[in-house]
Amino acid sequence: MAENLLQIQNICAGIQEKEILHDVSFNIQAAQIHVLMGPNGAGKSTLGNVLMGNPEYSISSGKLLFDGVDITNFPTDKRAKAGMFLSFQDPLEVPGISLESFIRSAMQQVTGQKIKLMAFKKELEKAMDVLDMSHSYAERDLNVGFSGGEKKKSEILQLLMLKPKFAILDETDSGLDVDAVRTVSRGIEEFQKNVGGALLIITHSTRILESLHVDYTHIMVRGRIVKSGDGSLVNEINEKGFDPFIPEDIKQAIRKEELAAAAKAAMDAVKAASANGGLQ
Hints:
Blueprint: E1 4-15, E2 18-29, E3 33-37, H1 44-52, E4 57-66, E5 69-70, H2 76-82, E6 84-87, E7 94-98, H3 99-111, H4 117-130, E8 141-142, H5 148-162, E9 166-170, H6 178-194, E10 198-202, E11 216-221, E12 224-229, H7 232-240, H8 248-275
Parallel strand pairs: 3-10, 3-11, 6-9, 9-10
Antiparallel strand pairs: 1-2, 1-4, 4-5, 7-8, 11-12
Helix pairs in contact: 3-5, 5-6
C-alpha cells in the first residue's frame, strides 16, 4: 500500500460547462479521518462525487491516485472494486430489491467471490445490532418507506459490510436527531476499529465528530480549499464560523455578485411593473 492512500492533485472539475472545483489538493493516508467543511454551495458534495467517479461530473485538469494507482479516468464500479465507497447525502429508494440482496450483490461485485448466505446473514445481523436496526429491515425494499434516519443507517450498514479502504460520508448526519447521530457515529467507530479504513467526512455540523479522532480538517469555499489544519480547526470553526477563514478576494467576489443580483432583481421589478401598466 502506498504511504498516501488517496492523493488529490490539483483537481479542477465541474458539471457540464461549469467549473466548480478549483485546484483542489490534499492527501489522505490509510486509517486517517479527514473532515471537509464549508458554507452551502462550497463544492463539498461535488468533490465527493468527483472522487467516486460520478459520470455527471468531469475533471478538466489534475490527477487522482488511489493506493498508488492513477484512477483519474476509472469508472465508478472500478473505483468501488479498488476499495472506495460513497455514502449518499440523500439515499435513493430502490423498489424490487431488498436491502439484504442489495448488500450481498454489492459484496459479490466488489470481491468477485460468491458470498455464503448463512455467514452473510449472521454478519449482517451483527452489523444491524451495532446500528440499532431491526433485522426486519433486511427484507424490506432498499430505502423504500425508510425514514431519513433509517436511510442513513442503511448507508452505514453498507459501509460496515463492504469494508472499503476509503469511504466518503456526504452529510451523513444531516436531518438526524441527537440519538440517531450517536448511533451513526457508533457505526463509524465500528468501521474504523474493525476495518481501519480511511474516511473523508463531509459535514456542516460537528455533532458526528464528537466521538471520533479527526486527523485533518479542510475548509472549502467556492470550490477552493482555503484552510487546512488538524482536528482543532473544527473547534475554531465552531467558535468563529467560516468567515475568518475566507480570503478577501473571495469575499469581494461574493459582494460583487450579491450587488449584481440585487441590481438585476430591481431592474426585473421595474420591467414587470412597466409591463403591468407602469409604476403605481
